[in-house]
Amino acid sequence: MSSKLNYKDIEVDILYKDELKRKVEDYLANESVNVVELVSMDYLSEYCEDNHTLEKLSETDLVLPGDREVLLTLSQDDVEKLENDNVVVDYKAAGAVLKDGLFDGKKLYLSCRNRKEAFFMQRYLKAHYPLMEIVKIQSEESGRAEEAIINEINTLLPDVVIVSMSEYGSDDWVFKNKAMLNTKLCICIGSVMDVIFYENVHIPKFFKFIHMEKFYSYMLKRPYKRSVRRRDRTKKSGLNNV
User: Fold this and answer.
1) Pairwise CA distance, residues 19 & 87, whole Å
2) Given 47, 72, 97, 191, which is the most exposed site by the fewest CB atoms within 10 A?
3) Strand locations in the chain (E)
């Protein structure tokens, strides 16, 4: 398959799972830093006319659909049919490819927006990639200097760096620093992190025991609902324009 869908001037890569597997195998085998970005439809809509974003994405090795809405919006094909044909339609499909032994024995460095997200991602990654070693998890709210993070990555020598930063800043950070990173693969998930969180809420046993799992899930998921996120971004944009 290996085709592209265009949203204005942004190209999104559409791959079969076996094609993605081969590319990731190549990325993990070579010596240069490769960058894969998972994008949401919100991200594409918000930054499609931003020249800096267009430049970043043009230098990204793969730009993949991070949630199904990307293909629902851009593709003429039925998304369920594409999924049944083993096309990478969202982060889950991409993650399923990585589960197929690609991360076994690999070292991972994870940079998140905050401690809550870091704890969630640690649980999520351990559940899905139990044979992968997480060498470090750091959060933006720790306030560490950029140079310190780069030095730490270059000391720990992870095979993979996963980056999720606030205000869609993941690709910005990688774009700025990738030439200084001693790693093989950077994966930017900042624009789909809220989707991942929303769809994978962990419910503690206590809330299941007292039959409050639906309430707990609702309260935890509410800030990550697409409508709430869009409303909050609209408010923030309005404040910034005052």
Assistant:
1) 9
2) 72
3) 3-7, 10-14, 34-39, 62-65, 107-112, 133-139, 160-163, 185-188
Angle formed at CA 172 by CA 5 and CA 103, multiple of 5 degrees = 70
Three-state DSSP class for residue 159? coil
Contact 103, 127 (CB under 8 A): no
Q: Is the dihedral of CA 184, 82, 14, 117 positive or negative?
A: negative
Predicted local distance difference test score (pLDDT) of residue 134:
96
Beta-sheet strands, E only, within 97-209: 107-112, 133-139, 160-163, 185-188
- Phi then psi for 137, rounded to 5 degrees? -125, 125
Residue pLDDT, tens place only, 36-80: 999 999 889 888 888 888 888 889 999 999 999 999 888 878 888
d(CA 1, CA 16): 6
Q: What is the pLDDT of residues 181-197, one digit of tens each?
A: 999 999 999 889 888 88
- The pLDDT score that the predictor gives to residue 23 is 96
Cα maximum dimension of the chain:
52
Could you tell me if 174 and 186 are in contact, meaning their C-beta atoms sit under 8 angstroms apart? yes
